[in-house]
Amino acid sequence: MNRISWNQYFMAQSHLLALRSTCTRLTVGATIVRDKRIIAGGYNGSIAGDVHCVDEGCYVIDNHCVRTIHAEMNALLQCAKFGVPTEGAEIYVTHFPCLQCTKALIQAGIKTVYYAKDYKNNPYAVDLFEKAGVKVEKVPLELPLNELLLSES
Ligand SMILES: [Zn+2]
Ligand SMILES: [Zn+2]
C-alpha cells in the first residue's frame, strides 16, 4: 500500500489551494498545521468583495500586484478571524514566502516553514527566519497522486 507522508499530504493541500488563486501573476497556497491537523488554509486572492485579477486584470504598482493578499497572510488572518492560536504551528507553502509574509509568520509564532519551490528567496527573510529560530525546509511536491488515488480500485 502506498501511504502518503504527512509532508506530502499537507504540501498537496497547499497546491490544491493554489488552484483557487485569483491573481494570474502567481498562484500560491498555504496550509497551517498544528499537531498534524490542518487549522487554516489560504491562497493568493483579493479582499472579500473586491474584484478578481482573473476577471479585471492585475492592479500593478511598482511591478507588484497590490490587489491580493498573499496565501500565508490569508491563512494567518483566518486564524485571527476565528481565534485559533498559531503559536508553535507549522506552515506548508507552495513558494518561499516574501519578506512581508516572513515577518508576519515569525510574529505569529510559526515555528516551521515547509516550502515546495524557491521563489526570489529574500536574503533578509532567510536571515530573519534564522534569527527567530524558525526551521525552514524545502519539501518539493512528489505526488504520484493520480496513481495513489486511482490504483486501488
Ligand atoms: Zn493580481
Ligand atoms: Zn507574501
Keywords, please?
6 helices; binds zinc ion; five-stranded mixed sheet; 9 strands; two-stranded antiparallel sheet; 153 residues; alpha/beta
What does the model show?
The chain is of the alpha/beta class and 153 residues long. The chain has helices at residues 6-18, 53-56, 71-82, 99-107, 123-131, 145-150, and strands at residues 29-34, 37-43, 45-46, 60-61, 64-65, 68-69, 90-95, 112-117, 135-138. The strands form 3 sheets. Strands 2-1-7-8-9 form a 5-stranded mixed β-sheet, sandwiched between helices. A hairpin with a 2-residue loop joins strand 4 and strand 5. Helix 4 (99-107) packs parallel to helix 5. The mean pLDDT is 93. The structure holds zinc ion (2 copies). Its cofactor is Zn(2+).
Please trace the helix and strand order, writing H or E for each element.
HEEEHEEEHEHEHEH
Overall geometry? globular
Q: Mean pLDDT across all residues, rounded?
A: 93
**Compute the gyration radius: what is it?**
16 Å
Alpha plus pi helix count: 6
Task: List segments where confidence is low: pLDDT < 50 over at least 5 consecutive residues.
Answer: none
**What order do the strands of the largest sheet run in, or round the barrel if closed?**
2-1-7-8-9
Spatial separation of the terminal alpha carbons: 12 Å
Got a strand count?
Answer: 9
Q: State the helical fraction.
A: 25-40%
Tell me what portion of residues adopts beta-strand conformation.
Answer: 15-25%
The main pleated sheet reads as:
5 strands, mixed
Structural class: alpha/beta
Name the ligand types.
zinc ion
